Amino acid sequence: MATGNATGRTLFDKVWDAHEVVRREDGQSLLWIDRHFLHEGSFHAFDKVAARGAEVARPDLTFGVEDHYVPTRVRVLERMDPAIRRMMEQLRANTDRHHVRLFGIDDPAQGIVHVVGPEQGLTLPGLCIVCGDSHTATHGAFGALAFGIGASEVAHVLMTQTLWQSRPKRLRVRVEGALAPGIAAKDIALSIIARIGADGAAGHAIEYAGSTIRGLSMEGRLTLCNLSIEAGGRCGMVAPDETTLAYLRGRPFAPAGADFERAAEAWLGLAGDMDAVFDREVVLDGSEIAPIVTWGTSPEDALPITMAVPDPDAADDAGRAAHIRDALAYMDLRPGQKLSDIRVDRVFIGSCTNSRIEDLRAAAAVLAGRSAQVPGLVSPGSAQVKQQAEAEGLDVVFTSAGLEWVDAGCSMCVGMNGDLVPPGERCASTTNRNFKGRQGPGSRTHLMSPAMVAAAAVTGHLTDMRPLLAGRV
Amino acid sequence: MRPFTQLQAVGCPLSLSGVDTDQIIPARFMKRSRAEGYGGYLLHDLRFDAGGAARADFPLNAPTYQGAQVLVARRNFGSGSSREAAVYALVDYGIRCVVAPSFGDIFASNAVNNGLLPATVSEPDGEALLAALEAQAGPMQVDLEACRVRIGALDVAFAVDPVWRTKLLNGWDDIDLTTSHAAAIAAFVAGDRARRPWALPRTTVGKPD
Ligand code: SF4
């Protein structure tokens, strides 16, 4: 299954090639799927399976997670909103019927699918992972080929454990240099998206490389790969290294003992060849990355906190000018307004982007001993993260600051569970999408890192967290 | 799936970029079963105000664009989530083709799986199509055999992945095709066990008590 190229193969090529069951003349490949994650939204796909009278081909490789709709305060089915309860009961019925392991709200391993997979060792290097959720790219942090799919494709995977795909092009994003103190993976990712655009990586598999990336923890790499989709990328990957192995050792579903050591050897061999060729390359200087916030309604509308809201009249083309005008009207902002003058009504710390233990620690470092000026919600990415945070006393930092500490789920990232930003309100959020109405009808979202959200909480406006962090990290 | 070859229908201009899937179908409508139909929720919060009244200035609400089966939009249409419900909303409303300079990858593949054509045009051609539709509502032609879009004398090329084009032209469904490769799948699985023994989840993990 060689690529036919004389040159070496990239990480992406190696993983892709290992999953090709069939390659057609027209360039379509039938890929084998190693892990398939499901959530409450998977009911459309199960309906399609039922309509064909089919069975789930490989229940042992299929895992369900309750996350999108789960209430973060009420964890008892009987006391939930009936529509939400129905969503959960549907998933329970479908996974039961097909003998699929479900991480439900009562499970000590429950959480957001993209937090649970890595945490449980279900996500491993070199795997091909799919889920009916665009942020599946997150799992690429381990050197897995992981991407989001739609309901028709979910149904196809359920029935066959395979998927037809055409090979994307390869984009390397190389970030070199030491990050300034307090700068997080979120700042790197938003800088990349602002540079290449929200469709800049469309049709591409992204590989993140360079000394800055190698220096990131697994949590940081997960945040970075998570946001690949916001750059339009099909997936994002980081080559497995010692950081990857250290994270995976002892995870419940990962290989153990001698099996782990044998696997580790194979995983380290997945790194791209020295002479591997990419279709495109983007290079960033890590030392120049500043804390970033978004001002508009697309993740590409991102700028360093020290800058001002852009002026549509200064845009280079009509389409961009129209977008800026529309975004500023929706966000209720004026051209030229300093970003640090934007007042917020509430904050949210959570989502598959920034709800891991390191994210909570970063927010707590800013919040410790201070009070939030606005209400806010902190939802850990999983029950395990919650437990760990409580063991470290982070929950006390959040609640002492006046923020609400709740259970794990997608929560206010998408508001499906009822955790909403009220119409017209402005929220500083660690999530991944500042789309119109994303956090609730009429809601206004500013994306930023956990430390920046914490800084917005204690000042009541978007603000540079660096002075607040001085002497604390 | 219904094949797509030629279409002659009203086109509606949507001069916005980055119309993401949260706009196309807001999350709160996604609990419904497909059988109930998603067309009423298409671009809901752009089409209707907070009180539920149709916004007069939104193109899909204009009398001239009623019955539209083609949408022309700016770049990055369908970015965002993988929710196929965004495609259901378009299809159930009656849209059969979206023309834009770029699309969210997952949206585009979902579209094709539901017989909806994502036609990619150059930015200048996209602007010309928008201007033509805004100046005068009227029928437009989409020809998938020739990969051309026409409004009156304006005749531009569009691109679509050749595999998707074949699928749309024939109305093919992947599952039947995959089933014909059952032997290759079985052979792959057998070989893969030896090549990647670490790829299976460790099975000694019990369910929690
Ligand atoms: S946290 Fe948000 S982005 Fe992540 S899976 Fe849940 S809804 Fe999607």
Give a structural overview.
The complex is a heterodimer of chains A (473) and B (209). In chain A, the strands form five sheets. Chain A has a five-stranded parallel beta sheet with strand order 5-4-3-6-7, sandwiched between helices. Chain A has a five-stranded parallel beta sheet with strand order 17-16-15-18-19. A four-stranded parallel beta sheet of chain A has the order 11-10-9-12. Chain A has helices at residues 11-17, 43-51, 82-97, 113-119, 151-160, 185-196, 211-214, 218-226, 242-248, 257-268, 318-331, 357-367, 383-391, 394-401, 450-459, 466-469, and strands at 20-23, 28-32, 35-38, 62-65, 101-103, 128-131, 145-148, 162-166, 169-176, 204-209, 235-237, 280-285, 292-294, 302-304, 346-349, 376-378, 404-405, 426-429, 444-447. The model of chain A has no long low-confidence stretch (mean pLDDT 96). Chain A is an alpha/beta fold and 473 residues long. Chain A is globular, with a radius of gyration of 22 Å. Chain A is built from 16 helices and 19 strands. In chain A, helix 6 packs parallel to helix 8 (218-226). Chain A folds into two domains: 11-281, Aconitase, domain 3 (2-Layer Sandwich); 291-469, Aconitase, domain 3. The longest helix of chain A has 16 residues, at 82-97. With 209 residues, chain B is of the alpha/beta class. Chain B has one domain: Aconitase, domain 4, CATH 3.20.19.10. Helix content of chain B is 33%, strand content 16%. Chain B is built from eight helices and seven strands. Chain B has helices at 21-24, 44-47, 85-93, 105-113, 123-135, 162-170, 174-179, 182-195, and strands spanning 6-14, 70-73, 97-100, 117-120, 139-143, 148-151, 154-157. In chain B, strands 4-3-2-1-5-6-7 form a seven-stranded mixed beta sheet. The longest helix of chain B is centred in the C-terminal third of the chain and has 14 residues, at 182-195. The radius of gyration of chain B is 20 Å and the shape is globular. The chains are: A alpha/beta (473), B alpha/beta (209). Chains A and B meet through strand 2, helix 2, helix 3, helix 5 and strand 8 of A and helix 4, helix 6, helix 7 and helix 8 of B. The complex binds iron/sulfur cluster. Residues 67-68, 112, 114, 133, 135, 351-352, 410, 413-414, 432 of chain A line the site of iron/sulfur cluster (SF4).
